[in-house]
Amino acid sequence: MIINVFCICFKKKKNILVMVLLMIFTSFSQGTFIKGGVIDAVSLQPIQDVSITIESTKQAVYTDASGVFMFSAKVPLGEQILRISKVGYTTKRYPIIVNENETVSIFDMTLERAVSDIQELFTISLSDDELDSDTSEFDNISGLLVSSLDVFQRTAAFEFSPSFFKMRGLDSNNSTVLINGIKMNKFYNGRPQWSNWGGLNDVMRNRELSAGLSPSSYNFGGILGSVNITMRPSQVKSGGRLTYSSSNRSYTNRLMTTYSSGLQKSGWAYMLSIARRWGNEGYQDGTSYNANSFFGSVENVINEKHSLGITGIYTPSRRGKSSPNTQEVYDLKGIKYNEYWGWQQGEKRNARIKEVVEPVLMFNHYWNLNNQAALNTNIAYQFGSIGNSRLDYNGTDLINGIPEGGGANPSPAYYQKLPSYFERNFPDDLEFAYGAQKQFLKDGQINWDHLYEANSLNALKGGNAIYALYEDRVDDRQLTLNTILNWELNDHIIWNASINYRNLKSENFAQVIDLFGASSYLDIDGFATNSDDAQNDLLNPNRMVNEGDRFKYNFNFLAREINTYIQTQFRYAKVDFYIAVGVNNTQYRRDGIYKNGGFPDYSFGKGKTLTFTGFGVKGGLTYKPISKHIIDVNASYTTRPPTLQNTYSNARENNSIVPNISEEKTATVDASYILRLPFVKAKLTGYYTKIANANTISFFFADGIGGDNAVFVQEILQGIETNHLGGELGIEAQVTQTIKLKGVASVGQFTYANNPNLFLTTEANDASKQAGFIDGFKDFGKSYLKNYKLAAGPHRAYSIGFEYRDPEYWWFGATANMFTNTYIDVSPLTRSLNFTTDFDGNPFNDYDEDLAAELLKQEQFDDYMVINLVGGKSWKVGNKYIGFFASVNNILDKVYKTGGFEQGRNANYRQLRDDNALETPVFDSKYWYGRGTTYFMNLYVRF
């Protein structure tokens, strides 16, 4: 037919234009196209000016008045993701498969108004609380998963995280967070410090997630994946947003305003955001919250090839911490109890304040080398401080050259103030226990006035401060440089590479905050037995310090990292596959500023430079026999350096390194079946991860070391191996135009796979020598942990829920979430030979193996179910959008434990046996409880 038309045109020789148009049409008909349409999910009306982007190439088009779009030039082949976005609607990502010389037609794409509010709802809650926490119990990767397309990962972030669920039982240092291509994970513990950008939700919406081992365009990534948060003003449309929020979770009020100029004709674009979050206390008693957030970014799109951007982030925050407690304390005071605060002049004052002030400055250069290649070069500088305050009650005076003094422990939940202590020590006179219980119920908080009175009375005698408030400070200065190359070699092959450099100087010290009316504090160790050992700094003996001075310890960490990765992705009609290789070189050094009296020979000056070389290789294959059924398989093997936190056994006092320290090794594999039907999407995954040669360090006071000795120790667990085996299922079904159902299941088993080595270090004094320590070090051999469960939140979690969206733009959803197989963190010391050994090195003569097995049985917490509700409404008023949404979590007010740990105080069989024989153990395990019923409400105006 087309040939006949050409003949007619030539014979008539009149309509050359018609011939040209038909030739163009013919060439198109033999090409590769993507065409489709976008409609409102509720009204089913077409939506104009929707941005459609092919994520792998960044090609973009907009829908016309009929909601229709088409890609016709340089359409990439294989599995692609279409990013569908418009202001006032939720951004969606649609997976498609493009075959050569075929047309992909998708006219069933829908956008839903204000669905992003659901994502924001949980992002706010998580980033302001759990993700800010500095305890491993609160560690998760929810901030990584909120941008996921996958229903399982969204549910893990939104529904499971309040129970401190960990994806695959893994720590969040197995994930990588980047902002504008710059890695934000800390050298110290490998985790991102989420509070560094807390409150900036509006400018964090543009996220690119690479889940699990899937390839990333920016870095090699961790085994839990990576996310790049893009904060480029040129990629945000003009407009603003004003938000007010109220909650009883971490803060009580939030105000936020954001404005974006959009890309101007001059090539300039800017974006600003300011937020404040505050509250006298959240759900836990005495947990004050005070945080401000400032963001500014300017970008100049110079031409089609070059763009320059400058970004500044400043989010100072102060928040009061809450305490883990024994069951005895919870039974007396309830799950909201927090021992860290007390009344002062009619206000609640928390002794444990975490303050984070770490601004970030970024410079970014984006260079489109040609239509196929782009180079992104970044420079970032982060500086500031993290402070964690606490009370000191060991202030002393020098009497004839010997330190004397010290005060009573001000903790209201100190074991010697609780009824169980008096029941144990005075079993024949329970009046003492009754009196302790009565006093604890009446007050049970820090007595700030007593601290002032004690210091004032000692000052009248010419003495120093007995009590002081100080903070453990970390002042980091970090420079990051990197270059990222993305190159589309042809329609089938994409090449990614980067090289990164990071350099850190970290000052670590204690600083006096408040002397409670005293004029000075004697900077020595009050527990030492001679004057030299007592000196925190032999270079400044018997030094008197005032508020604002450094004391106790002072040292620097120096760290440097260079890493690179190369990745190649292959995309074809029926199969995609990739392979990536990464190499890194890391150096650490500790420089002591103080010469510690307990370790005079190896605490001062430059320490040994440690060098670690790591590498990683990963690959994956996606098989797509038809677009509705997909098989995905991935595997990786990596080695990485230990974190600074787990490299030095007692960095505050000396340069000692963990024995036999070397790189941590990880091998992992997963396989998934993915179902994509018009109304049902599902994914079933099985995985296995093996981690080897890991280390942990903890600090505690132990009774029963080498017999009946009591020593403050650093516990080093070295050469840890763990297994992580499990399966994941996520399914969602759009059963009607307004109702969606979802179901998720995570079934895992996370265990110790070996018996790691156990070492203890402590002060080299008479007490430690009596306990068998040599120069403050003792090798306890193996800790018999094999087959014990990891304290990684619930090993099994299930969720079912629904969501209703009305044509009048209101919505409502509910979920029921079940959690099982949550375990306490066991004490390695009680699983070592120390548990069975008396002071003479021989086994206890009264050791009962059956009773010991019962004492060492790992506690499993009760199963529990939590029901959550969420809903909202949006209105369009002129060219503005007004929205309201709210959520209620744990609507049935279920009481449940989320985690806990065995105290290491009872280190041997006799100590643990005698304590557990009591009706209420004195040194019982400590727990965290989940919140009862909480709410979050949000009102916003978008213009």
UniProtKB/TrEMBL annotation:
Keywords: Carboxypeptidase, Cell outer membrane, Hydrolase, Membrane, Protease, Signal
One GO CC annotation: cell outer membrane
Major location category of this protein: membrane
SUPFAM superfamilies: Carboxypeptidase regulatory domain-like, Porins
Pfam family name, one: CarbopepD_reg_2
Subcellular location: Cell outer membrane
GO molecular function, one term: carboxypeptidase activity
Position of the signal peptide: 1-29
Protein name: Carboxypeptidase-like regulatory domain-containing protein
Protein source organism: Snuella sedimenti
